[in-house]
Structures are given as structure tokens and as C-alpha cells.
Amino acid sequence: MPPFVGSHPLSSGFSRNSIDSFSNIVTIDVGGHLFQTTKQTLKQSGSKSILSEISNLDGSIPFIDRDPEMFSILLSLLRTGNLPSKAKTFDIQDLVFESQFYGVEHLLLNSHSNPSQFEPFDLEKSLILPLSGRDSPTAISTTQLGSVQVAHGCKITSFDWSLKRKSTILTQFAGIDSMLSLSPNVVAAGATDFSGLQIIDVSKGFVKETLNWENVTKSGSTVQGIGASKEFLFTSFESSRRNSNCIMIYDLSDNGFRPVSEIGHYEIFGAELDSAIPATKLSWISSYNLLMAAGSHSGPSGVRGNIRFWDLRSGNAVWEIKENVDCFADCTVSDDLSAILKVGVHSGEVFISDLRNIGKENTWTCLGDSRKVTNGKKEGFGSKIESHGNQVFCSKGGNIELWSEVLIGSSIKDRVFRKNSMGRAKDSCGNKITHFSFGGNKMFVTRKDQQFVEVWQSSVRGF
Question: Which segments constitute the BTB domain (predicted)?
């Protein structure tokens, strides 16, 4: 007998007169348990859901041969748009299967991946995503809804929004250094020792497109960094001979990834070290319509780098920050904070600079101990920094520091940031954090010499 058996006559305690007086009330029998709700609530499920069909029935109680406890979870989701706390007692995959039966998986996805449920001060490790083979992750990329792709060795493993493993595919790379999710099923991937940027369908395991930069020397072009806006895909290329570099811009709305233009084309001559530094981090700043491109180089005189902001319309750099004293080990940009952030390679401290100063002389403000700036100990080597909302996350070895803005004044100097060492994010073995990324209401963390990905969520609202 199918789960949805149509209906049976009204009985025991229900009369047509009472139903008529409350014509908006719908009663459903799920697995022998009666539920009452409104037609409006059921219609929240969408026109293709069986619950929407039930809302159109009159004068009968439909019977559905399914788990009543799970139905109560989904009914609460329809009523409030959020999962109730008792949902934590169920396996997420069981709820996914149940939501697919009722046709409300999209509501479960939106609730489970809602960024507003990300509580940075209350994160704890909720899940481990194992990877096949012995290779540690070399790149990780997420989507807004919380699906994630992980590159490890020559493979890419994909997990959907519910963190169920979808696929593991082999690529042509010996190792992937840069990767960006363009959709839950498509990634852009490249390596510093393999020519070309590959657009890969990870669900079917094939290369849709290979993009190359034709440099003056006609040598191959390796990928140093990848970024994207809603309209464009940005790729930092370096010639295989390492004597030229540029940033290529491709049209994302074009299935063939039509090249739009190139910016920051540098040919290296003699001792011009600045021109020898390709961008390894590309970040789009939507509120300013600018592309941040950052790269650094370690040489005899120490670590040097530059951060440039490019106007795509003119193709010109409108602001440049040259890093000489305490160059960044990593840097990022935050639209929410209207700021550039870096972690110093020598000091290991977090610095912030106001984006509203574009075009002016740059001034970094140290959020920690400014006395460490010139100590030369490279305490920040290998550290990573990212922003999520108005929070700043910085990895230091096996730990993650969280910087949160608690007061906003008229300038960066008037801002107050509080540091919270996320002790629960500390690895008991001291394994160094190599990557971390954010998707939906989750934080994904990888560590050196570990063949898995840690999933961190709010212990209050996480699933």
C-alpha cells in the first residue's frame, strides 16, 4: 500500500459541522497520529508538494503512511521557516529523504544552510568528512548553500548541502593548488605546475573547458589564483618560464567562458621584483566594484608583496599597497567591515585598513601587539585569514582566533575589536590548519597531514 492512501471518512470527535465552521483547518493522519494545521501553512510547501495537494481536499482526513515524528519536524519547518531544536535528535539524511517525499527539500535546505544561524562565538566541531586515499587537502571551496568541494592529491571529492558525499573524481593534475566552486556541480581548478585553468563538472567527472593565457613567449600558463563576481571569473596566470603574469577576466554568463579582457599584464625585466609577483589571491569587492589582487615573494631582502585594487572598466589599478616591513602571510577584504585585513608574516598579528581610504596613503592598524611587527621571527608564516559577515577569523598553527567588531566609530582607529581564541577549535595533536572556508552556516577546516575535513557549526543552532 502506498504511503499516501488518499483519505478516510471523518470519525470519532470530528463532525462536518465543526469542520465547516473552521474551513481553513486541515486534519492529517500521519502513521496513526492526527495533526491539525491551516491551509496557508500547507501551501508554504510549494505547488508541487503533496502537502499543497492535501490543502485542497475538503471533508476528509487524508492518511499518510510515514513517520509522524519526522512529519512534526517538517510541519514546524512550514510554520516557522526554521527547524525546531528537537530536529537534532534525527540524522540529517533521514530528514532529507523525508523532505524529498513531501516535496519540501528546498525549505529544509534554506533552513539548514541559513547564514543567519551562524554563531561565531559558539562554534564546535559537529562532523568529520572523510576523504579517500592518503593525500591531505590542498584546496577547499564552498557554495553559499553549504555544499563543499575538496581537492586532495589528483582527486576532487564533493559533498552536497547536507554533507552527503556525492562523488570523487580523478583529475589531470598531480595536485590542485587553486579551486573555486562555480556551482554545486562545477568547479574551476588550476595548479602552479600544470598549464591551464580547467572548468570541471564534478558530478559527471569531465573537463568542460580549458582556459589558457597566450603570453608573449608562447609558453604554457599556470594558475596562481582564482576569484569571481556574479558576472565574471578572474584567473591569475603566470607563464611557465615565470617571466610574465597577468589576470584574465572571463564572462560567467557565457557557457564558453568568453575572455573579456586582461589586466595587470607584467613582463619581468632585470631586477624589477614587484613585476615578478603574480597575484595569488583574488577577491571581488561588490560595493566598490573593484577587484583586489594580492601576491607576495620571499627573496634575499625578506618577504615583499603588493595589494592592488583594479577597476575593470578602465583596466587600471586605482590603489596599490606595497608590503615591505611586515608583509602579509595572508590577506582578505571585507565588504561588511569596509576594510582590508592581513596577518603579518613576521608578527603573526592581525592588521586592518579602511577601504574608504582608497587612493590615499595606506595605514595599517594593528589589532594585537604592534611591538611584534619588526621582530623578524615569522610568527605568522602559514597563517590564514578570512572574514565572514562582520567577523574576522585568523588561523595560528592549530588554533583559530576570532576578531569581532564591538563598536563602530567614524574611522578605523575608532573601532574596537575583541579577540576570542576559539579553544574548542584547537586540535589535540597540534596539527596546523592549512585551509578554512565558510558555506551557509558552517565553517570547514582542513589540517596538515589529515585526510579529512572538519565541519564546525553553532552548538546552539547548528544541526
Answer: 24-119
Q: What would the grid cell of residue 444 be?
A: 570547514
**Residues facing residue 142 across a β-bridge:** 148
Residue 24, C-alpha cell as written in the block: 481553513
Whole-number CA gyration radius for the chain: 26
| SS3 at position 130 | strand
Quick check: 412 and 352 in contact, CB under 8 A? yes
Which residues contact residue 146 at a Cβ distance below 8 angstroms, ignoring those fewer than 6 apart?
A: 112, 113, 161, 163, 439, 440, 441, 442
For residue 29, the one-letter residue type is D
pLDDT digits (tens, 9 = 90+) for 431-448: 899 999 999 889 999 999
Instruction: Please name the residue that has the C-alpha cell 547548528.
Output: 462
Please state, in angstroms and as integers, the Cα–Cα distance from residue 384 to each residue in 51, 278, 369, following that order. 47, 19, 18
Indicate the CATH number for domain 25-113.
3.30.710.10
Query: Residue 397, Cβ neighbours under 10 Å: how many?
Result: 16
Q: 13: which residues sit within 8 A by CB, 6+ positions away?
A: none
Question: What's this model's pTM, rounded to 2 decimal places?
Answer: 0.85
Q: Mind listing the pLDDT tens digit for each residue in 33-46?
A: 999 999 999 999 99
CATH number for the 212-322 domain, one of 2.130.10.10, 3.40.50.410, 3.30.200.20, 2.60.120.10?
2.130.10.10
